[in-house]
């Protein structure tokens, strides 16, 4: 997948998926959550009509796996032919998730960050960071990536994996990374804000990727209070899962109408992106199956074209 669809090349597919989501041509039912004692398995079906793509992502999140040396996330994406319903492909879902997540950050950064942004903060150095950094670097000329994780060993792994390809520097704290950056990316599993809002420079763009329950927030009230533009992947998703925004609304800091728009509305030209050099912008994403479908479909198309993968006769 890394060879078939580099994250920068995945950005246009994610843009089309968001446009369909906001334009009403995507059919994305609510995801089904099957909870067990140790984790949750999510079933996420959907159809894109413009792209003519039909797929189901099934992803398990078992946080305790890590202590046993196993990945916390396992998943598969099954791609179907929308014309006759035939299963076309089964694609490994954990990397696909990181790929489409990185691409969505790349898109938001392209639409909302200052064009002359040259430094980024990467807070949380897990699976998503591996695609977020290349995606941001594909849309902005980044000279420095200030990287921080509360687990010091995460930095060592991050640096070993992508340190040769990107200008990474270890930050002493998340606040230090934020204070030096034009683009701030958070992809942690934290339930509490990971940086102080007063550290943000005017003109910063923030990508909030990690939190996905009403109890979780990576971006605190002070940072949200300083944002003049809040953009989400989907308003309904944000209102049920984006802890930052749900808690800010509950606290009376903002109201739902302070969410400027969905990112797909900017893609469609219905809403504008950044308006000034000084404004602080915030893209909050909780993830959506539309992205998995669009990117999964393109990976299948490219794999066929280049004869990559294993053909299985289902009889
Ligand atoms: N929005 C989306 O589309 C989307 C997609 C995939 C994953 N996610 C979410 O993003 C988060 C990160 O995913 P991942 O796969 O990279 O997880 P991961 O477990 O691989 O990495 C998370 C990292 O965050 C670090 N961390 C935790 N608390 C921290 C803190 N306070 N400060 C700094 N670092 C901290 C951990 O040490 C870990 O290295 C998860 O919550 C996941 O559910 C969102």
Give a description of the structure.
- This protein is of the alpha/beta class.
- The radius of gyration is 19 Å and the shape is globular.
- The model has no long low-confidence stretch (mean pLDDT about 95).
- The protein has 2 domains: about 5-95 and about 290-305, ornithine cyclodeaminase, domain 1 (2-Layer Sandwich), CATH 3.30.1780; about 110-285, Rossmann fold (3-Layer(aba) Sandwich), CATH 3.40.50.720.
- Helix 4 (about 150-160) links the parallel strand 8 (about 145-150) and strand 9.
- Helices cover about 35% and strands about 25% of the residues.
- Helix 2 (about 95-110) crosses helix 10.
- The protein has 10 helices and 14 strands.
- The longest helix has 20 residues, at about 95-110.
- Strands 9-8-7-10-11-14-12-13 form an 8-stranded parallel beta sheet.
- Nicotinamide-adenine-dinucleotide binds near residues 154 and 194.
């Amino acid at each position: 997948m890394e060879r078939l669809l580099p994250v920068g090349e995945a950005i246009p597919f994610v843009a089309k998926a968001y446009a369909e989501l906001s334009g009403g041509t995507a059919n994305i039912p609510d995801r089904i959550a099957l909870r067990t004692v140790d984790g949750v398995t999510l079933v996420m079906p959907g159809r894109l009509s413009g792209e003519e793509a039909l797929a189901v992502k099934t992803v398990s999140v078992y946080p305790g796996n890590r202590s046993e040396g196993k990945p916390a996330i396992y998943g598969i994406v099954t791609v179907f032919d929308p014309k006759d319903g035939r299963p076309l492909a089964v694609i490994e879902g954990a990397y696909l998730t990181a790929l489409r997540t990185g691409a969505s950050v790349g898109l938001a950064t392209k639409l909302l960050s200052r064009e002359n942004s040259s430094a980024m903060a990467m807070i949380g150095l897990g699976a998503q960071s591996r695609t977020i950094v290349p995606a941001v670097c594909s849309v902005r000329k980044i000279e420095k990536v200030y990287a921080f994780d509360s687990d010091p060993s995460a930095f060592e792994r991050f640096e070993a994996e992508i340190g040769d390809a990107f200008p990474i520097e270890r930050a002493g704290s998340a606040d230090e990374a934020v204070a030096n950056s034009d683009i701030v990316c958070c992809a942690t599993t934290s339930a509490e804000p990971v940086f102080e809002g007063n550290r943000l420079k005017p003109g910063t763009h923030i990508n909030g990727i990690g939190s996905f329950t009403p109890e979780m927030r990576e971006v605190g009230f002070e940072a949200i209070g300083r944002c003049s533009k809040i953009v989400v992947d989907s308003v309904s998703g944000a209102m049920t899962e984006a802890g930052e925004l749900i808690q800010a609304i509950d606290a009376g800091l903002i109201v739902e109408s302070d969410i400027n728009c969905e990112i797909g509305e900017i893609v469609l030209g219905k809403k504008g992106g950044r308006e000034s050099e000084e404004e602080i912008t915030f893209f909050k994403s909780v993830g959506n199956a539309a992205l998995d479908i669009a990117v999964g479909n393109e990976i299948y198309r490219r794999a066929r074209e280049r004869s990559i993968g294993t053909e299985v006769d289902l009889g």
